[in-house]
Write a structure and sequence with these properties.
Helix content: 25-40%
Bound molecules: nicotinamide-adenine-dinucleotide, 2'deoxy-thymidine-5'-diphospho-alpha-D-glucose
Radius of gyration: 19 Å
Shape: globular
Strand order of the largest sheet: 3-2-1-4-5-6-10
CATH class of the largest domain: Alpha Beta
CATH topology of the largest domain: Rossmann fold
Number of helices: 12
Number of strands: 12
Strand content: 15-25%
Order of helices and strands: EHEEHEHHEHEEHEEHEEHEHHHH
Largest sheet: 7 strands, parallel
Number of domains: 2
Distance between the termini: 45 Å
CATH architecture of the largest domain: 3-Layer(aba) Sandwich
Length: 335
């Protein structure tokens, strides 16, 4: 299978590129290398003859055509602006990449005769749920500029199925964690701050609930949807491990040998969704199931960050410091 994967230098994208190569696919990776895109994430596949990198923007039709080259069997769109807090601080880039970029990609894929298109989306498009779990038929009620942009991308992708008969599948994954996640998200931020003995900024009361999934389980879910998903269908991909942010924080402090004195309750995120929870039975019916136990995967993730300061210390400088100052009102751990 010849795959065009976008956003392959990011956190989930790089894991998905590795999975696709391991499963025998030929991969072209189109990535703009934003602050979140890191070529080091794919260092070990650079020499693989089945792998090709194209530096470019999914919103730029010429770049997309260059990446498509003489064709592909499917597109898997993982490129996105992905961080909720940045979408609140500086929203403009979000619809540009997540809606317009997705639209350009769909159009160029269809023009090139590529039938299959997987739009990697998020559970955040459903908004918050007090009890029970979201199914794929629930209404869209995104809360943040990020999730509203992702919802726009989903609707564009589904429209390409309805209007043009393209074989589009949308996946909606839950909160993902593991190695190589940019240290702006809860788990890598708190792990790296704690390793440095710095405060961990918990928003509000910390009792918000997220449904956690390991990056490898998320990727096998996307792969299952790519291979077996029904055209026009949406598939939730949830890990099924629900926990409050405070619970996650305490586990991280424990695993890094720190105590709760590092917890700093800071102002809540505006419009903060209280709880996410996914019903993934539709994808499970295709034979997928998450395999990682949360506690084991968290231990492995903390171990990775402990061993790979060479990966995250350079990130926690430059642009990251400006972002940290704007978001938290003071310098980052490594500043
Ligand atoms: P990330 O921020 O780590 O990586 C995004 C990648 O996309 C980067 O390599 C970046 O350079 C690239 N990119 C950004 N804009 C681009 C553009 N215009 N053109 C080409 N490349 C561009 O993101 P992630 O956490 O790996 O998320 C990947 C996808 O999965 C996103 O679509 C996100 O919405 C979705 N998702 C993420 C999570 C999560 O918890 N991280 C959960 C569910 C869904
Ligand atoms: O649910 C899927 C989504 O998960 C993805 O679509 C997004 O791309 C991804 O960023 C993630 O969004 P969240 O906003 O849920 O993740 P984040 O890691 O930013 O925050 C997780 C929870 O932790 C959330 O309730 C906010 C809280 N938090 C986060 C940060 C960064 C804090 O309390 N303090 C923090 O400093």
């Amino acid at each position: 299978m010849r795959l065009l994967i976008t956003g392959g230098c990011g956190f989930i994208g790089s894991a998905f590129v590795r999975l696709a190569l391991a499963r025998g696919a030929e991969v072209t990776n189109l990535d703009k290398l934003t602050y979140a895109g890191n070529p080091k994430n794919l260092a070990e596949v650079e020499g693989d003859p089945a792998y090709r990198f194209v530096h470019g923007d999914i919103a730029d039709a010429d770049a997309v055509r260059a990446a498509i080259g003489d064709g592909a069997d499917a597109v898997v769109n993982l490129a996105a602006e992905s961080h909720v807090d940045r979408s609140i601080l500086a929203p403009a880039e979000f619809p540009r990449t997540d809606v317009v970029g997705t639209t350009v990609l769909l159009h160029e894929a269809r023009t090139a005769g590529i039938e299959r298109f997987v739009q990697v989306s998020t559970d955040e498009v459903y908004g918050s749920i007090e009890s029970g779990s979201f199914t794929e038929t629930d209404r869209l009620a995104p809360s943040s500029p990020y999730s509203a942009s992702k919802a726009g991308g989903d609707l564009q992708a589904l429209a390409w199925h309805h209007t043009f008969g393209m074989s589009v599948v949308v996946t909606r994954g839950s909160n993902t964690f593991g190695p190589r996640q940019y240290p702006e998200k809860l788990i890598p931020l708190f792990v790296t701050n704690a390793l440095d003995g710095q405060p961990v900024p918990v928003y509000g009361d910390g009792m918000q609930v997220r449904d956690w999934i390991s990056v490898d389980d998320h990727c096998t879910g996307i792969w299952t949807a790519l291979e077996r998903g029904e055209p026009g269908a949406i598939y939730n991909i949830g890990g099924g491990y629900e926990a409050t942010n405070l619970d996650i924080t305490r586990r991280i402090l424990d695993l890094t040998g720190r105590d709760e004195s590092l917890i700093e309750h800071v102002a809540d995120r505006p419009g903060h969704d209280r709880r996410y929870s996914l019903d993934s039975s539709r994808l499970r019916a295709l034979g997928w199931a998450p395999t990682a136990a949360f506690a084991d995967a968290l231990v492995a993730t903390v171990g990775w960050y402990r061993d790979r300061r060479d990966w995250w210390e350079p990130i926690k400088s430059g642009e990251y410091r400006r972002y940290y100052e704007a978001q938290y009102g003071r310098g980052s751990a490594s500043s």
